[in-house]
Amino acid sequence: MLKTGFTKLIGCSVPIQQAGMAALANPELAAAVSEAGALGMVSVGGFPPEKVTRELELVRKRTLRPFGANFLIPGLTDEDIPEVSESVRAASKLARLVEFFYHEPQAELVKIVHSERALACWQVGSKVEAGAATDAGCDMIIAQGIEAGGHIRGRIGLMALLDQVLSKTDIPVIAAGGISSGRAMAASLAAGAAAVRVGTRFAAAEEAGAHPVYQRALVKSEAEDTIFTEAFGRGWPNAPHRVTRSSVEAAQAFQGEEVGQRYVKSSDEWAPVLRFQPIAVTKEVRGNVEAMPHWAGEGVGSVKSILPAAKIVDQLSDEAEKLLRRWSSQSFG
Q: Which DSSP string do the residues of 61-116 spell out, in sequence order?
């Protein structure tokens, strides 16, 4: 089994981190990934402290292994920090790793994570952000290349970004962006990454919260079927992302402004989904699902079927381990 500094630091056995894919990264998926030996993640950005605790306790009921909490914090202001800080503190009491995305690294939030003896991580898209995350006291960094699905911080390819970030910091770096196969995982580890971050492949897991229409679209797609765009920017402008081209085309062709509805747990009601609104396409949406954002990275071509999360972890790690062993035994002299 693959062992790295990341696995020793976190306490898991496989250097794979499941991405925090908004509502797709639910407690069921996180627990299943962690039980398989990797690091499961739950998305809790925007949740009040009591809901953060409830969500993470659902994971703990399903597994005693390490898991993490993800905070998506775009538009964070100084006025928001006290409220966010309490949610971060709640997460840090239960999660082994607390990570942040889509904002400049904040030392204040990192200190809160450390005060509860959890590890802090920041997802970055440049060597400048990597340096800032290191200076803020993060224990590790996620380097996100432009191949990634969902919202993207990086503007260059993963291998080029890894080279820049690894030369900028001595803390563990997790590779993210288009990693849906064991070959991509092995290449990232061989390039110096301490672990890999996998999103699109886990969106097609049986335990994920993804809508079946969305999951079937992933299975049918190839790398060239994804597009780097700002199309789904209603309510979140100037935030580039990668989705399937077909979902953009379906939204463009849709007549009207309301493509469907989504269930909002906090208010126990159905809310409208507007055309080009950047939502997580979960099982709790209805309407024209094809015209909602189908987030997908360039590694989507490796998604051939809907599988249990444990099977996905096994496939990725087994293939990566075989390739790394083969490469290390080859002579290039």
A: HH-SS-EEEEEE-TT--TTTHHHHHHHHHHHHTT-SEEEEESS---HHHHHHHHHT
- Which tokens belong to 83? 């409220």
The amino acid occupying position 324 is L
Q: Are 225 and 201 in the same domain?
A: no
Mean pLDDT score of the chain = 96
Q: Which amino acid is at 183?
A: R
Amino acid letter for position 288: N
246 neighbors 253 (Cβ within 8 angstroms): no
What is the layout of strands, in order, in the sheet containing 195-198? 16-18, 195-198, 173-176, 140-144, 119-124, 97-101, 67-72, 40-43
- Contacts of residue 330, defined as CB under 8 A and 6 or more positions apart, other chains included, come to none
* The residue type at 162: L
pTM for the whole thing? 0.96
Say if CB 262 and CB 285 are below 8 A apart: yes
Range of the domain at 143: 5-208+305-329
The per-residue b/e assignment along 148-172, b for 16 or more CB within 10 angstroms, e otherwise, is bbbbbbbebebeebbbebbebbebb
What pLDDT score does 157 carry?
Answer: 98
- What pLDDT, on the 0 to 100 scale, is given for residue 266? 63
- Kindly give the pairing relationship between strand 226-229 and strand 40-43: unpaired
Give pLDDT tens digits for 197-248: 999 999 999 999 999 999 999 999 999 999 999 999 999 999 999 999 999 9
The contacts of residue 22 (CB under 8 Å, 6+ apart) are 43, 45, 72, 150, 280
Together in a domain, 253 and 288: yes
Q: What is the CATH number for 59? A: 3.20.20.70
